[in-house]
Input
Amino acid sequence: MTDLASSEKVVPGNAPAEDVVFEVMGDADFDTAEMSLSIGPAHPATHGVLRVVLDMDGERIRHARPVIGYMHRGFEKLAEYRDFAQIMALTNRHDWLSGFGNELGVALAAEKMMEMEVPERAQWIRMLIAEWNRILNHLMFVGSYALELGGITPMFYAFREREDIQFLLESATGGRLHFTYNQPGGVKIDLPHGFMKESVELSATVRKRLPDYVDLVLGNEIFQGRTKGIGALPPEVALAYGVSGPTLQATGVPEDSRVTEPYLKYGEIDVRVPTGDNGDSFDRFAVLLGRIEASLDIIDQVHDHMPAGPVNSKLPKIVKAPEGFAYVRTENPLGQLGYWLESDGSKNPWRFKMRTPSFSNVQTLPWLLRGQLMPDAVAILGSVFFVVGDVDR
Amino acid sequence: MSPVTTPKSAPFGVGLLKGAAVTLKHLFRPAVTQQYPHERPDLAPRTRGVIALMDENCTVCMLCSRACPDWCIYIDSHKETVPPAKEGGRARTRNVLDRFAIDFALCMYCGICVDVCPFDALWWSPEFEYAEYDIDGLLHEMDRLREWMDTVPPPPPLDSGADAPAEVADAIAAKQKELDAARDAADAAASEAEAKTDEGGDSSKPAAKSAGSGKPNVADVHVEGAGEQLDQEVYDSLIAEGKSERMARAKAKAAWVRAQKQKQLDEDSDGGDA
Amino acid sequence: MTTILTLPLAQQASVLDVGNFALSAVFKIGVVLVMFMVISLVGGYLEHKAMGHMQARTGPMEAGPHGTLQLVADGIKFVQKEDVIPRNADKWVFAAAPGVALVPAMLGFYVLPLGPGVWAADLELGLFYALAIGSIGVLGILMGGWASANKFSLIGGLRAAAQLIAYELPLILAAAAVGIQAGSLSLVDIVDAQMTMQVFGTPITMWFIIPQLLGFVIFFIAAMAELSRPPFDMPIADSELVFGYMTEYTGIKFAMYLLTEYGGMVFMSGLMVVLYLGGWQILPGVDMPEGTWGALLGVGVTLGKIMLLIFVIVWARVAYPRLREDQLQKISWLILIPLSLLNIVIVALGKVLL
Output
């Protein structure tokens, strides 16, 4: 682990000239010096199309440069020609594992600009579904990180849990991955009969199965040998890069937007933020499991607090935001998600800027990968949780 | 760190044994696989499988087509004139739906079109087995969309904490208003009857009876020939005033019916009294 | 006839040594082929289903009742695939490599005793032969990695070779301890020794696993590493995409490599059964019935134990992530070899003193 002060500053763009570039798939190491290797866009170790160019010195990585943009879909520009309902349907898709969190941010931004009152019941329902979405996201990474390290089983257990949760959310929203359940001023339709009972039972079931992950993955000596001490991120570096979410919490900083700037009704319940000690890959994984448990606690509290009442207010035929701007920060499962919404009075926003968590998290890759051995690179890449759609939008 | 998910430090090897134990435990539990073609999934009623169209309800307002983020709904229509119902009337124009197609290759299953339709012409159905070998085959026309209406399930009942849906709430309010009105009418009639009883004494028992049961409802009286017979005097006077023939005829018919009903009521009450 | 035609190092005649040389040769070839081809497929089916159920799913269900014909279907699929040879590949080496890996794995079954009297040959150097011929298979892997004209295959092949060489030593040392305790290198003698060996002064017989539990564990771990089975499969899966030395192979050649892996699993399990688990004996101390029934029962017991060990190998695959290459080497050189030497010392002391 190189010291930040003593090593050369890693600035994006100062990569040495690539005279020999091998566009190959997979990671391998060469005993020749000055070799530039591309972990090409399509690679199972990266969640999506992310290219990482590695300058190798024998087995060691001298310099790593992530190349993003392979999945750029022009969300922010598209949003300038869509109205709020359409924008919410589209934002489900940039971080596809946290669809509800994304639309929630847009709804909150719209409500802030239009100064709409959201009914109580709608806020609690939003919290419930947002926390289930968070658990869905974290379970996915729990499964896939173990898979990258060679443990093939936790993936199946994680997806079994995910199926149950997705079935539950499908009964309320109609979708398993992209929910389109929010609207400015509330949610579209109330929960179906039997949902609350199912949710209570499922929360108990998932909680009962969590120790399996601890036994199978966290407590496994081989896993610990592969992840402890690997890719340690100090809190100063993490904050300097704007890292947020489980990656930041693993370094020891308990920064969580649900606690520091409560939105919805998070201020009225206990939100626990698990933190790690070293910021290494092991801690990042452990924080993920801790967050699943914390979300289950929040869900149980929401069950107790759920009031009766309406879930939305009647919207005008064309929803227009008044002139002005709003910035809303929410705690998406992968980190802090911010939406800057600027309106010129028409039904389409003038500017819609997304501050996505994965974009900031990916910036740490050059810092983390420098000086590491090749086999550890895969372990580190998988442990900085990001979704490429979120990076590129 | 949270209590459950922090591994307790253990001597080397215990973690490996625990991991082995977890997998062995699952060996003896039933598998969660659903053998798909033989067992079908039991999907929730709100599942967004495919969009079905009830074209009888569609008035070609084009709201769905405009609201679609992908512009995957293709609507064609033409205007038809409907001849007037009665001679001298105004001809009506009607929108006739020629083509309503949804390109499911573009559709992103967001549901904005279903939400936006004011006439309940678009519905979600959990049907998902409509895969095609050729991407052009995913453009489905009105007839196929109408077939899928058969697969649309009824909406599930809402949670106990939910407000009743708007239609149900409106119906309940209307019925409540009707009941309140009936009760108020009954109370008013009762107080009137009491007043009459105070005045008339016991001899007007039948009257009290009929009064007690409330004024005979004018609407309940049935008159033969309503709609054909008309009151000639009223008709002539209205024509003389300069009203149109149609209006004069209508008013004359109404006047005739009113007179008939009053006559019948008078006969009944007279008969009752006598 | 028999004296001329049996091998000079052979000791006990097997049940398959019928009078006619050609017929007994056919029987022996049949046994070897059946063990290698059919039992490997059964082992592969066991892997699919056991792995599936441990992962809360069912495994193959469609091909044949409950997926029993899945591996047959896979074989047919491999046979009808196009055989691609990279342009820059060394053609002859490339084509020969899977064979060089597969044939030694098959030949190992020549000495493996399956039941009382049921073996192809009982060589005086049986154990030596089995371990030596397994080592030849490493050559096939190296050839495959080199001839592929793909730098990643080469690296994967070299890593695999390094791993296999590193784990040969614990394997041989642990097996040597068994040889010491049995007093012979003949596999049949080792089984007999387990059936007749008595604890000092008592009439209790026990299998070698009990005094040599440490040796068994070392042998098991070394066998898994020899087979490149998870958690020791870094050479195959280090890029998680390409298959190491097997990358450029398609069709039947690829199937041959995979068959080598499954055949190796059966063979190593068979060796462990013979060396540590009492061969064809049902339980320590229980005598086997005589005659044909005894032979059939013995074969059944051996196969059952082999399947049990294959299950444990699959279990290890399912439960554990992959070890990094350097961790792998550390375990072998710094942990397993000293322990296996210690094991030999203990066994030798025990043999001399007791």
Summary: Chain B has a mean pLDDT of 81. The longest strand of chain B covers residues 92-103. The beta strands of chain B are 50-53, 73-82, 92-103, 122-125, 139-140.
